[in-house]
Automatic annotation (TrEMBL), chain A:
InterPro entries: Gluconate_2DH_su3. It comes from Komagataeibacter diospyri. This is Gluconate 2-dehydrogenase, small subunit. It holds the Pfam family Gluconate_2-dh3.
From TrEMBL, chain B:
Belongs to the GMC oxidoreductase family. This is Gluconate 2-dehydrogenase, large subunit. It comes from Komagataeibacter diospyri. Residues 229-330 form the Glucose-methanol-choline oxidoreductase N-terminal domain. The keyword Oxidoreductase applies. Keywords: FAD, Flavoprotein, Oxidoreductase.
Length: 241, 591
């Protein structure tokens, strides 16, 4: 995009990188009635995440996330745990994409902290928060146990996460309780989103609650199954188990 | 490069329900119409193909269909004296950002507002007197009545294919419908959908309590239907990917299925997409609008001259565009003078949340507006003497969510939110959770308003719109009253755990979970230029060739969702332009 400073009427156009990423290439289109061609551009094809290698997290970070996630959603008789279900792969790919860079957020300044009801004001991205948050998490574990989180007993892991959740154990710079909220949100997403995003292996999360997945017609059941149990094998996009 | 497009008869800014409804009327009358829309083109078959199911992560969670804060956001504070801050992340207003506007991804509850909602001032004065109003409340009539609008409500329903059960037709009560509704000249175009299990439990409980339940009219098409423009709509399949999703099934009324396929056959219609209007241009004396200026996706500045300018960018951007363009007098909170940004309202939500023991509510079979409601405590359908407030709420059992990420935290009180205990609680809670929404009225207040933010700018360097809003005492009183009714019905439904909440008891936030997206006012229509921006035809008092459409015109919010009232007022204005303005361009109301 050409830099354009002062334009007609005194408006200032800022050639920031945010602007450039929205405005390249030119998308504006003119559709005239009766001309026939007015189909939209089809959505990009769906694709399955490749979990064979990490794309954002380091191997150490991935191990730590896996250990935390498996406490948040453990393996038991109701189904596999978070890591086996692919939640770390899920997170790794989310952080490498537009979610990780907070591409849709408003990031212009001034950045100041406000009242809780004014919503989050930090412009740190989820990718940055994880990089820093995981390091500070490990530091906090070391300070307390002189060990790594992955080496703690199950009871110690649970107790430690509870004190992160409540904020009782603080991090150096980030708010530990807010980091916990992010971890919990992301592990649930991984466990319950369509398997094509890398998690929810064998649709384990959907089977847990009986969610049928990507079914688009319930007309036969809305009355006949009202208030009744429905036994159905869930369906995912791209038919991936 | 700066450029000028050929002059049009009419330029319409924004192509959601308001803009496309107006475009259809005016192109049918032979006018050359150019619409300028910030979002991209979307057509149902290509953009939301039935060969490809939606998924929750990209839809409800990452909100890919919405207007992103990076494109434009709003700053918020509760009151004068606080510093407003931008909503940096996706927030509750969930605005649209494509051809079709929010009408592509809306929930689809399709209400005619009560006669009371259009003339609240006259009605309250007559029944209770000014003593019923809390200090600072702004209450005024619209200048147009339910009876004026009835033919346009009817027409809009026949464009949308609205499904429902009529309650009053030609003054006659109808079984199963809403006995409190304004009299209709015709039943709904398509029949009401089947009810969910939660809806049925609600209806039974409400009936036992002596209330009058009825199916909420909706955009979910109830049977194959050819609409008023000759387009074929298909029955809804209860797929459950509805609010925040486009419907590829041709089953959710939207501009994309109900209007645009017709518009795109007309050579006198043009839409320019992915261009943001930054200013409405006027003659130097500000007596006439001359067109609009926009930025295209390359950052070029374009101009679209036109004889008539119509703004249809929804409440917030309608207000912002007038303020950015220096049109009409901005509201000044200190003096109470001025009109643009005044009479801003939200929606007062109350809830009853409940858990059953051994239900199969099968929440995934739902639609955006699969709801059964009572209106016994809405509008002025009950006697408010001694209650200290006006208004109320539509109280409804709402089956609109069954997607698992969104429900993962909805657990009976005391349940763990993670670990083994969470899995057990979620497994049970998923099938046993239900909710009753009290969708409450909101009345304007002297201290609730919109203006331009002094600090924060958009990507083009223009000031963001600032929202100064908190619930007023009327909202707090009505909110608690309605919450208690929600809880009463939830108990009667047989739930074992019941909780209630009235959002108005906490400061307003754009991030409260389960809150509304409805904002109204700022460019209101009315009878007096000192308290309204536009006359009863949504025509600017100062600039007769400028019309601003949408919920920004409403000086109060009903205990309903706004869109069918938006459609009806748009059709009313279109008729005034065609039948009155074109014959004799100038002010349609002379004082
Ligand atoms: C999630 C959700 C659920 C809802 N559910 C219901 C419901 O159940 N029932 C109901 O009645 N209502 C509901 N609503 C409200 C309903 O969607 C709106 O009332 C309706 O869509 C308003 O139509 P509109 O055309 O006035 O505005 P919009 O649909 O908002 O359209 C405005 C258009 O203007 C464009 N625009 C904005 N600024 C500019 C600019 N500067 N230049 C160019 N273009 C611009 C936008 O991109 C958009 O396409 C819901 C809304 C949301 C967000
Ligand atoms: S619930 Fe009905 S109207 Fe809504 S998206 Fe599904 S099929 Fe369409």
């Amino acid at each position: 995009m050409k830099r354009r400073d002062v334009i007609k009427g005194g408006l200032v156009l800022m050639a920031t990188s945010t602007l450039a990423s929205i405005y390249k290439p030119a998308y504006s289109k003119t559709y005239v009635g009766g001309s026939g061609a007015w189909r939209a551009t089809p959505p990009p094809p769906l694709s399955v995440v490749d979990g064979s290698r990490l794309v954002y997290l380091t191997a150490d970070e991935a191990r730590l996330v896996g250990a935390i996630f498996d406490v948040l959603i453990p393996a038991d008789e109701l189904g596999m745990g978070a890591t086996e279900a692919g939640c770390v792969t899920f997170l790794d790919h989310q952080l490498a994409g537009p979610y990780g860079t907070a591409a849709k957020d408003y990031k212009l300044g001034p950045v100041v902290e406000g009242l809780p009801q004014q919503g989050p004001q930090s412009i740190m991205t989820p990718a940055e928060i994880y990089r820093k948050g995981l390091a500070e998490f490990e530091q906090a574990v070391h300070a307390k146990f002189d060990k790594s989180f992955t080496d703690l007993s199950e009871e110690q892991k649970i107790a430690f996460l509870k004190s992160i959740e409540s904020g009782a154990i603080a991090f150096d710079t980030l708010k530990s309780d807010q980091f916990f909220v992010l971890l919990l949100q992301n592990v649930r997403e991984g466990y319950l989103a369509d398997p094509m995003y890398g998690g929810n292996r064998d649709m384990v999360g959907w089977k847990l609650v009986g969610f049928p997945g990507a079914i688009y017609d319930y007309r036969d059941w809305i009355v006949s199954k009202r208030g009744k149990k429905i036994d159905i094998h869930p369906i995912s996009l791209l038919g991936r188990a | 490069m700066n450029y000028k497009r050929p002059k049009a008869d009419v330029v319409i800014i924004g192509l959601g329900w308001s803009g496309s409804t107006m475009a259809e009327e005016l192109t049918r009358a032979g006018l050359k119409v150019v619409a300028i829309e910030r979002g991209a083109w979307r057509d149902t078959s290509t953009s939301f193909p039935t060969t490809r199911d939606p998924d929750e992560l990209s839809g409800s969670v990452r909100k890919e269909i919405l207007q992103a804060p990076v494109t434009e956001t709003y700053t918020v504070r509760n009151k004068v004296g606080q510093t407003a801050l931008p909503m940096r992340k996706y927030h509750n207003l969930t605005l649209g950002n494509n051809v079709g506007g929010a009408g592509t991804h809306w929930a689809g509850a399709s209400w005619r507002w009560l006669p009371f909602d259009h003339q609240p001032y006259s009605h309250v004065m007559q029944r209770y007197g000014a003593g019923q109003l809390v200090d600072g409340l702004i209450l005024q009539d619209w200048g147009v009545t339910y009876d004026d609008l009835e033919p346009f409500y009817d027409r809009f329903e026949k464009i949308a294919g609205t499904s429902g059960t009529a309650g009053v037709v030609n003054g006659q009560r109808q079984p199963g419908g809403n006995p409190f509704e304004g009299s209709r000249t015709a039943p709904y175009p398509t029949p009401a959908l089947e009810r969910s299990r939660a809806n049925v439990l609600f209806a039974e409980a409400a009936t036992r309590l002596g209330y009058h339940p009825f199916p909420v009219p909706s955009a979910m098409i109830g049977a194959p239907y050819k609409n008023a423009l000759g387009l074929n709509l298909a029955p809804c399949t209860y797929c459950g990917y509805c609010q925040l999703y486009g419907c590829g099934n041709w089953s959710k009324s939207s501009p994309n299925i109900c209007i645009l396929p017709v518009l795109m056959q007309r050579p006198n219609f043009t839409v320019v997409t992915e261009c943001e209007v930054i200013r409405i241009n006027t003659t130097p004396d500000r007596k006439m609008a001359t067109g609009v200026t926009f930025v295209d996706s390359d950052g070029n500045i374009g101009e679209q001259p036109a004889d008539i300018v119509i703004t249809a960018t929804f409440t917030l951007d309608n207000t912002r565009l007038l303020l950015l363009s220096g049109i009409s007098t901005p509201y000044d909170v200190a003096s109470g003078q001025g009109v643009v940004g005044r009479a801003f309202t939200f929606q007062t939500l109350s809830w009853g949340f409940m858990f059953f023991e051994n239900e199969y509510l099968n929440p995934f079979m739902n639609t955006g507006a699969l709801a059964t409601q009572i209106d016994d405590f809405n509008g002025d359908n009950f006697d408010h003497t001694g209650l200290g407030f006006i208004g109320g709420a539509g109280i409804q059992s709402l089956s609109n969510q069954g997607l698992p990420i969104g429900m993962a935290g909805l657990l009976p009180q005391g349940s763990p939110q993670w670990g083994k205990g969470w899995k057990q609680a979620f497994q049970k809670g998923y099938q046993n959770y239900a909710q009753i929404q009290g969708q409450g009225t909101s009345f304007a207040h002297r201290e609730q308003f919109l203006d331009l933010d002094p600090t924060y700018k958009d990507r083009f360097g223009q000031p963001l719109l600032r929202i100064t809003f908190d619930y007023n005492e009327n909202d707090r009183r009505s909110g608690r009253f309605i919450r208690d009714k929600c809880v009463e019905i939830a108990r009667e439904m047989g739930a074992t755990q019941v909780g209630g909440d009235s959002f108005a008891d906490r400061p307003y936030s754009g991030y409260t979970p389960w809150d509304s997206s409805h904002v109204q006012g700022g460019v209101v229509m009315g009878e007096d230029p000192r308290t309204s921006v536009q006359n009863r035809y949504q025509q600017n008092w100062d600039i007769p060739n400028l019309f601003v459409l949408g919920a920004s015109s409403f000086p109060n919010n009903a205990g309903y969702n706004p869109t069918v009232a938006v459609g009806a007022t748009t059709l009313w204005t279109a008729t005034a332009i065609k039948d009155l303005y074109l014959k004799n361009p100038g002010p349609l109301v002379r004082l």
